[in-house]
UniProtKB/TrEMBL annotation:
It catalyses: L-homoserine + NADP(+) = L-aspartate 4-semialdehyde + NADPH + H(+); L-homoserine + NAD(+) = L-aspartate 4-semialdehyde + NADH + H(+). This is Homoserine dehydrogenase. NADP(+) binds at L13, G14, C15, G16, V17, V18, G19, S20. The active site is at K207 (proton donor). Its cofactor is a metal cation. Pfam families: ACT (PF01842), Homoserine_dh (PF00742), NAD_binding_3 (PF03447). NADPH binds at K107. Pathway: Amino-acid biosynthesis; L-threonine biosynthesis; L-threonine from L-aspartate: step 3/5; Amino-acid biosynthesis; L-methionine biosynthesis via de novo pathway; L-homoserine from L-aspartate: step 3/3. It comes from Propioniciclava flava. Residues 352-427 form the ACT domain.
Amino acid sequence: MTIGDAPVRVALLGCGVVGSQVARILVEQADDLRERVGRPLELVGIGVRRDIPRPGIDPALLTTDVASLVRREDVDIVVEMVGGIEPTLTYLLDAIAAGKSVVTANKALLAQHGDAVFDAARDSDVDVYYEAAVAGAIPIIRPLRESLVGDAITSVLGIVNGTTNYILDQMHTRKSTFADALAEAQSLGYAEADPTADVEGYDAAAKAAILASLAFHTRVHLDDVDREGITEIDVQDIAAAERLGCVVKLLARCTVSADGTVAVGVHPTMVPLEHPLAGIRGAYNAVFVESVNAGRLMFMGPGAGGSPTASAVLGDIVTAARNRVRGVAGPGESAYSTPGITPPGAVRSRYYLSVTVRDEPGVLARVAEAMARQQVSIAAVRQEQGDEGGRAHLGITTHEATHDAVRAVVTHLMSTDDVHGGVRVLRVEGA
Ligand SMILES: NC(=O)C1=CN([C@@H]2O[C@H](COP(=O)(O)OP(=O)(O)OC[C@H]3O[C@@H](n4cnc5c(N)ncnc54)[C@H](O)[C@@H]3O)[C@@H](O)[C@H]2O)C=CC1
Ligand SMILES: N[C@@H](CC=O)C(=O)O
Ligand code: NA
């Protein structure tokens, strides 16, 4: 608790893309922030890995002794903008044990070690806020944790990774290569330090785990998320989506299955142009929430980048500071439910299958029969063109089927002489 008129003292860890913007706003908007908190918000230290000059930053604030900074008596709130698991987790737990409130944007850490962090915060009666951890600037954590906590959420569907949305958007609209679009996303500050986390879907999976935990009042971990990245998306997939009136998006999907278990997945998905998520461009994110009483809600805005992300971080700092001034901790997570996780193979979706077959009588019937045997119902078949080698290309869309059933179809097709090469499979979102 902060005493008298004393400032609320903030220690910042990490001064990269996001941390440097947090430091800038704390200084540039100090007067307004003081009014909003009721006390000055004072930046008392910045923990960095390398003690080098940083433009606009008072060198006296910098320290490489981060372990000591998080425990210092003159610190009330620790703002973690480092990323990664260790030593970050140790810093956060040490800060909490020392009675500091914590603000973090670290979805990877929360999706793997959230239990330890939240339990420690509850035991120490301090705040953990993490609005920036999911969908950057978009308010989505607080709406789920507070505004919608009296409702019953049935599904959360979202574009929650700015880097991959930027890449896919550039592949569709500018016909950029994957590599060029990724390099641009990195130079714009959207990508993680290791962009594998973005393009292989780990970042979106961590965010999906956090969203599902909040939406369904449970604890979903990174390992519970069925994950597929976008590294295999090529110009053929982009062209196929366009022929179907769709765009490819990396979608995070959190739903409740018929048996009450929770299904959480991240997959490149064909999204019809008329769907609200199809129009989300560049590094923007959007989260589509459906609940029993409110109905359908959509949250949209910048999902990555230093300044937008810092906006969400500052919101958390002000909230944590106000709580400290009042000597209270804000609402924690309500994770009372244990529904279990739906096995990935049992999750239902619509699919697109791209198959190259022998261009001969009876082949299409045998493909259809293989699908019928697995209860995979065909919605449409499009024969794209024959080629000189006597082959035809089929683009098949299905009605809803389980992933196990579609996988069995693919395994069978590839064992026959009718099919040449592999079978490309992508999910298709309903309009
Ligand atoms: N860049 C973005 O658009 C967004 C980033 N985030 C999250 O924000 C966090 C920070 O991301 P960025 O600023 O983009 O990363 P960054 O790589 O630009 O900055 C991280 C900084 O932490 C420093 N650092 C590394 N290890 C350290 C240590 N042990 N002690 C002190 N400093 C250390 C690095 O030198 C670097 O300056 C990550 O958790 C990331 O996932 C969340 C939303 C959006
Ligand atoms: N690398 C992330 C940054 C925000 O979380 C992204 O691209 O969305
Ligand atoms: Na957010």
